[in-house]
Design a protein that fits this description.
The complex is a heterodimer.
Chain A (H helix, E strand, L loop, with lengths): L3 E5 L2 E5 L5 E3 L4 E4 L6 H7 L9 H16 L3 E4 L7 H5 L3 H11 L3 E5 L13 E3 L1 E4 L2 E4 L11 E4 L4 E5 L2 E9 L3 E3 L10 E2 L14 E4 L5 E4 H6 L2
Parallel strand pairs in A: 4-5, 5-6, 6-7, 9-10, 10-13, 11-14
Antiparallel strand pairs in A: 1-2, 2-3, 3-4, 8-9, 11-12, 12-13, 12-15, 15-16
Helix pairs in contact in A: 2-4
Chain B lengths: L7 E5 L6 H13 L9 E4 L3 H17 L6 E4 L5 H9 L4 E4 L1 H8 L4 H5 L4 E4 L2 H5 L2 H16 L4 E6 L5 H8 L8 E3 L7 E4 L17 H10 L3 E4 L3 H14 L6 E4 L5 H12 L5 E4 L14 E5 L5 H8 L11 E5 L3 H15 L13 H14 L4 H9 L9 H13 L13 E4 L2 E4 L4 H7 L9 E6 L5 E6 H4 L7 E4 L2 E9 L2 E6 L19 H11 L9 H13 L8 E8 L2 E7 L4 H17 L4 E6 L4 E5 L6 H4 L2 H13 L2 H13 L7 H6 L8 H11 L4 H12 L4 H11 L3 E5 L17 E2 L4 H16 L6
Helix pairs in contact in B: 4-7, 7-14, 13-19, 14-16, 14-17, 14-24, 21-23, 21-28, 24-27
The chains are: A alpha/beta, B alpha/beta.
Amino acid sequence: MSDYNFTFAGAALVARADGSLWWPHERLLCVSDLHLGKSERVARRGGAMLPPYDTEETLSRLKAAIDVTAPATVICLGDSFDDLDAANAVTDDVRATITTLQAGCEWVWIEGNHDPGPVDFGGSHCADLVRGAVIFQHIAETEATRASGEISGHYHPKASLPGIAARACFLITKNRIILPAFGAYTGGLSISNPVFDPWIDEQTRAVLIGKVATPVPANAILKQR
Amino acid sequence: MDRAAEPATLLIAPTGGGKTLSGFLPSLIELADGKHDGLHTIYVSPLKALAADIKRNLGTPITDMDLPIRVEDRTGDTSYTQKRRQRADPPHILLTTPESLALLVSYEDAPRMFKGVQRVIIDEIHALAESKRGDQLLLALSRIQSIAPDLRRVGLSATVEDPDQIARSLARNPDPCPIVRADPGPDPDISMLITDEKPPWSGGGAKYSIPSVLELVKQHKTTLIFHNTRAQAEIFFHNLWLANDESLPIGIHHGSLSRDQRAKVETAMTHGELRAIVCTGSLDLGIDWGDVDLVIQIGAPKNVKRLIQRIGRANHHYNAPSKAVLVPANRFEVVECVAALQAAKDHDLDGDPPSPGPKDVLCQHILIAACAGPFRATDLYHEVKSVGAYANLSRAEFDDCLDFCATGGYALRAYDKWKRLKETNGQWHLRDPRSCAQIRMNLGTIFDHETLKVKFKRAPKTLGEIEESFAATLTQGDTFLIGGQIVRYEGLNQLTVEVSRQKGREPKVATFNGTKFSTSTQLSQRILQLFQQNNWPDLPDHTSEWLSMQRDYSKLPEPGRLLVETFPQDGREHMVVYGFAGINAHRTLGLILTQRMEAAGLNPLGFVVTDYALMIWGLDEVTDPASLLDPQNMYYGLETWLQGNAVMKRTFRIAATIAGLIDRNTRQGRKTGRQATFSSDILYDTLAKYDPEHLMLRITREEAMRGMVDFGRIEEMLNRTKGQVDHVKLDRITPLAAPLFLEPGRIPVWGEGREKLLQDRAAALMDDAGLSDL
């Protein structure tokens, strides 16, 4: 009961409380915006020396999701690495962890704006991927309608209810899903930001993640503002 | 004047003794011949406004005597071009703030600018001495002193409880620092307001006193009406105007108001146009406001030292006594006010023991030093130790901070390639010069709450600011007070709260800036001693009768014992702990005790705290409070509770920002809609999980123990009472406990309940929107 089950483009999907998207029929697990290597990139650019445990933490969360769902396909929906140099600079430990995670399943790296080229890891690399009636790509299209379903990440949506601190969330419309960022060191952009306007109508739900995946009508959240 | 050659001097004089100008006299004399080239004297004040004030006051003698002396100020308000010019061609006398001075020290050309400096004057040093701003200032001075070894230091202070302590922090360790005391003048004339109407049992508004306060304003030339919180000042101001039939000119001044609005009040005040100002701590410091002849303190002063300083604002003439009236806001505060009056009469000023120099400020200082140029660790270590607060800093502690600045100081994984500081040939320097801009941008130790500007729709003028957390509780149509007017919340536009005018309705209570300071240990002790008297001739009848009833029916709290009452009321079991440890410590105690009660199956439902007591209610009776309050158990409870606590996270955010781990200006990122910035809570959780002994977490624990968590006061309470718990079991509510039932700010105990609340609310919204079946 801690996840949110819903129907999208004719498919039964699950918005998991950990921020990953699960498609049981396809045995497909999708996560977005891992931003692996973020602390390393900040340090490289002369910024603060953040606790260098984010990559480890993100991968351990991903491992937990994979252990529970046992997927046939894993899609990393872009911005998997904080930049391409970060992808090249990962430690042997991290490389080994990723290889272990990839064992026994089809692994797809979708390109994002932070990691626009191929990365030196197993699995396939592509700009987008079509599965059934659904297209996976990093950034959502802005026109309100799209014939088939579209699943993307990039925006790191978050939302809050009165008295409760903002939480990362899925944004789910009739034909579009925007995933929350899965990475440990990721912030969020409130869904009340005008950027999200094209996708919010009376059917749009924000599914807040945390201990429990909690759906809330997006309009109800906007109305508080 | 005879002291001008001392390496350090502390001058103590009551406010208005002309001490600031006397600090400048030696400089004016030395500069009079026009031979000194470059910077000669630095004046540092805690307030920008004070620097501007001094510039005006110094201008007169310099112009009158036609002296060849250039005086300029440099604060956060100074223009970029002016600042650049000052670095190339510094004035003789520079008036500045600790933050602006630290910034100057961070530039590569600091040695050129400071090499000829003769004297630094620190004004209102008592206000800086107890803060990180003061630590930062003295660290900056230690750098300047290395550049200009002959630098002499002059501190100007209001009356303080422990002048030696301030003198020690002012002087370069181990230099001596003679203290010069001006005649303190006659004792102030302080009394407590006694009205026909009895003060209410609880609350802080003191609305009952409005007619009497107006009467006092009429009888005096200019009155300052001090409040302990901005919210209370707003509400009082509003009510004062409702009763102000003669339309006496009365203004309001506090830190949440826009700068324009404050400046307007300040100007009106200087011109003698106002009869009264309702204000908060923003007027605590010594700006000269002219002819104030009465100070009214609304609500118990909480701290005798602050009371004396506020009273010092009245009657800025040397030989007349200052006049002040205390207005207790509720019945208990009557006792506290009387205790404060006695303390003031005995010159018993309270003060906290000095704590060692904070390490987050040291980390920032190391980064500032690196911005200015390469340094040797040993040299910097000895320089830092010349600052009194850091005199006992061990080399290992220093190296810890240096390592944190250089590599982040992580136990399990190291940045080897991308260090922030590198050591080359024994000299530490920035690896990437781009770091400089970021370090300077984050400089400073003042940490404001996240605030949002409040404006009328389609109007450019800012009315003031409210805390983000308060804004988050507002929904459209809610009304609150700001700048003395009631406004209606319309919505949030970017980072601005939009409001409309609202006439003549009771506002929803403004709870912004709810942080309260605790009643001091000394004052609490005095209250406990007062309770031990056989009768109370100093107290009004209504209050002494109340205390007598408590003594007959239950017991009055004693200094060396801990009184705990338990009784049923309204179908709930209640426990009242009269800890007298202050509101922050009681809040912590409440969180720890309810957690332990939850574990013991006593089903606590909530608690409420004041400065003198903690009351917990729940489904089951507490039969053995002594074991619940056992120190051993208390420490255990603290450890488990602290970890996930919001106070810890807030303390971490402040310390990590000062130490340079988090950027101060994350708001910029939010404004541009970037999702790259993430909450400091994430870093806190990560460190707690992977690196629990990391320097930043150690700093956070140390700070929290003193600040909002205030565990030190709980320890003090436990030591004072040594397990002597007086448990009084009763069948109904007691007189002393009764006001607690009316106290606002009840804290519910959620546990899993909060999660449940979210689920229910979300489910209802989904139903309303007809989306449940999607």
